[in-house]
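Tokens for chain A. Residues wanted.
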């Protein structure tokens, strides 16, 4: 599977998506600083302890994250693994315990083009989770770099909801911080190589991986022991009207 280029240049920060997210970040900082309550910080197990076997998928390696990339991400914990099963899949997780200090999840739609990947298509799809009544929204993102094509599936998740839309994620970050006194969140990204493959088959395998990894990963990051402070506080009326849970 082709390796991603490292964060060696930051011209993409001048793009419209990055500027929009930066504006929301400034709003978050201003609102968070006005919240008088103490924030609840979770203590989940390290992501390095996540299962090496998930359903039919077996970990076959880990890929190193460049130190400069880690500085850019500012995540509290990360996971970068390759799993092998019906296909080969790269799994990346960036976990944030708090986003009140201006730290925030990063969008692959910002980072991947900044590393030389050209977007081909982008959509939001719904993936059903077997054994539950749950379906989750997931970004479907196809990118190309020279002769390499990758399918990227990614979403944002916190203890209360799953989101695909970056801007909705920022909105609910504010709502959940007010309601639960928490701002922990993870960005989960799944990548499979499309080069030389039947795209529909490769996509079906990537979706199967998402279905298999979603439950174990959610339990790992938000177990009962790590889930203190889940009881909501009353919201201001103007936010309560539009802040119904999204799963």
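Reply:
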């Amino acid at each position: 599977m082709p390796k991603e280029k490292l964060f060696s240049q930051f011209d993409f920060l001048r793009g419209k998506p990055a500027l929009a997210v930066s504006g929301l970040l400034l709003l978050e900082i201003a609102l968070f600083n006005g919240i008088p309550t103490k924030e609840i910080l979770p203590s989940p197990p390290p992501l390095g302890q996540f299962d090496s076997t998930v359903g039919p998928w077996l970990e076959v390696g880990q890929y190193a994250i460049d130190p400069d990339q880690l500085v850019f991400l500012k995540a509290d914990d990360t996971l970068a693994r390759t799993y092998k099963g019906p296909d080969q899949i790269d799994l990346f997780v960036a976990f944030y315990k708090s986003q009140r200090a201006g730290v925030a999840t990063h969008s692959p739609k910002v980072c991947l083009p900044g590393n030389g990947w050209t977007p081909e298509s982008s959509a939001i799809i719904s993936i059903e989770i077997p054994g539950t009544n749950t379906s989750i929204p997931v970004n479907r993102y196809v990118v190309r770099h020279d002769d390499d094509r990758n399918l990227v599936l990614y979403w944002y998740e916190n203890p209360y909801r799953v989101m695909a839309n970056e801007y909705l994620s920022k909105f609910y970050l504010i709502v959940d911080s007010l309601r639960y006194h928490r701002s922990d969140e993870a960005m989960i990204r799944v990548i499979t190589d499309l080069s030389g493959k039947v795209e529909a088959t490769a996509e079906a395998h990537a979706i199967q991986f998402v279905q298999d990894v979603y439950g174990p990963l959610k339990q790992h990051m938000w177990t009962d022991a790590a889930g203190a402070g889940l009881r909501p506080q009353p919201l201001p009326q103007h936010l309560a009207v539009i802040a119904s849970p999204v799963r």
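The helical segments are 16-33, 67-73, 108-114, 166-180, 199-221, 237-240. The chain has one domain: 11-229.
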